[in-house]
Specification:
About 20% of the residues lie in helices and about 45% in strands. It is α+β, with helices and mostly antiparallel strands and about 425 residues long. Helix 1 runs antiparallel to helix 5, helix 2 runs antiparallel to helix 4 and helix 3 crosses helix 5.
């Protein structure tokens, strides 16, 4: 925290210096309140006296370049330095007070500039995460041959949050990736994953911009990504969320994003969600509508010749926390427009859980998951494979403060072929 405070104040100081130098340049020299102090102004004698008494330092050589007029803003800077001194004589104090009265407007101007700058710097918060992930997928083809796909990824995330006022904040995420197997990154590019403004007024919340697309009702069974648009949430124990915008299908499961590349990748999106959970019991329901020509090109989406370009997905979820250790959650979702692979469901039992601020905390879970490709568009699970079903177990652990580790294993079958589908996943994250 000390280092963070020092860096923040250093940044403020540097920016303030830049502001002062810019304001005192000849560009502003002829305009109030930065006009030159006339050569015969009494302030020069007063400031010279303060310099002779060691109260201020002038330009660094105890002179004030009498043959060169200075701006009122520069004069205010000198006076401000003098006002900061406490060990001055009564005579010098009287001179300082007289100068302060004469240049009160400039001092106020200077004070506003500096205080606002410091306030804005203090209200911009930066957090981040560096993560390593390993994923190993094993699939069995129709001939019984096992194929494997391993991935070693490094990812760096920055999360800036800026306070606009008491009600509004701006939030964003910057992301950079590196593939360790090839030692290749995103060509040096940093991706703006999301950015949105959020206004909070009691139990009413509004978001504008690119923001999270995630259903609390089904705990991410359908989708966990980001969309561009608007969302409003209102209510306390019973919360309602309404959303509308566009979602890029490039992040959808491989059955959908493959065909989406030949169409407009972005699907029109509208959604509504309802959640209730003041106590141990929590209940939720959601409706999500997507419209894109990409759905018409998915071979298994429709059985008829007239294919739908809509996805109407309903989901429900329920959870119960027995105590501070045990939690049970289940969810079901269906796409009423799809003719095949149109359902998804999940049931998970969790024990304990991690807190990255507390070293030694851990958690474990066991789950059964079913992912119909036309409804589980981009679920939240790290072990996800398109159009599969099976069991999953996992464990998480915090070996050190702000260091998170996870190991997960999925053992399942492909819904279309009934062949084996397995995924081993591991992650180490460092939060700062």
């Amino acid at each position: 925290m000390k280092e963070e405070f020092f860096m923040k104040k250093t940044l403020v100081s540097a920016l303030t210096t830049a502001l002062v130098v810019g304001a005192a340049s000849t560009t502003f020299a002829a305009a109030n309140p930065f006009s030159d102090v006339p050569a015969d102004h009494w302030a020069y004698d007063a400031v010279s006296q303060l310099a002779a008494d060691g109260v201020i330092e002038g330009y660094g050589d105890t002179t004030f370049r009498g043959n060169q007029n200075i701006t009122r803003y520069e004069m205010a800077q000198m006076i401000a330095k003098a006002m900061a001194k406490s060990d001055v004589s009564a005579a010098d104090k009287a001179l300082i007070d007289k100068l302060a009265a004469e240049f009160s407007d400039e001092l106020n101007n200077l004070g506003v500039r500096v205080s606002n700058l410091e306030r804005n710097a203090d209200m911009v918060k930066w957090t981040g995460e560096a993560r390593y992930t390993y994923t190993s997928k094993r699939d069995e083809d129709t001939n019984g041959k096992k194929t494997k796909d391993n991935a070693d990824k490094l990812q760096f995330r920055l999360y800036p949050t800026a306070e606009v006022n008491n009600n509004w904040h701006v939030k964003a995420r910057l992301t950079a990736n590196t593939d360790m197997s090839s030692d290749k990154g995103d060509d040096g590019n940093v991706k703006l994953t999301y950015v949105y403004a959020e206004g909070q007024y009691g139990n009413f919340d509004v978001k504008l911009g690119k923001q999270e697309l995630f259903s609390t009702a089904d705990a991410g069974l359908v989708v966990d990504d980001y969309f561009s648009g608007a969302a409003v949430t209102f209510g306390k124990d019973f919360k309602t969320t309404l959303e509308a915008g566009r979602w890029n299908l490039e992040n959808a499961n491989d059955k959908i994003n493959t065909v989406a590349k030949t169409f407009d990748n972005a699907a029109n999106y509208q959604g509504a969600e309802f959640n209730y959970g003041p106590n141990k019991l929590r209940l939720g329901a959601s409706y999500r509508h997507f419209n894109s020509a990409a759905f018409t090109a998915v071979n298994t989406y429709s059985n008829g010749t007239s294919k739908s370009d809509d996805a109407n997905i309903w989901s429900v979820g329920a959870g119960y926390k027995f105590d501070h250790n045990w939690d049970l959650f289940g969810a079901f979702a269906q796409n009423t427009e799809a003719d095949n692979y149109d359902t998804a469901h999940n049931i998970q039992l969790s024990y304990k859980g991690t807190d990255i601020a507390n070293k030694g905390t851990w958690g474990a879970y066991a789950a059964y998951r079913y992912f119909g490709q036309n409804v589980a568009l981009f679920p939240t699970y790290d072990t996800f494979q398109t159009n599969t079903k099976g069991w999953e177990v996992g464990a998480t652990y915090v070996p050190f403060k702000d260091v998170y580790t996870a190991v997960e294993y999925f053992d399942g079958k492909n819904l279309a072929t009934d062949r084996d589908a397995n995924t081993l996943f591991g992650r180490v994250s460092y939060f700062f």
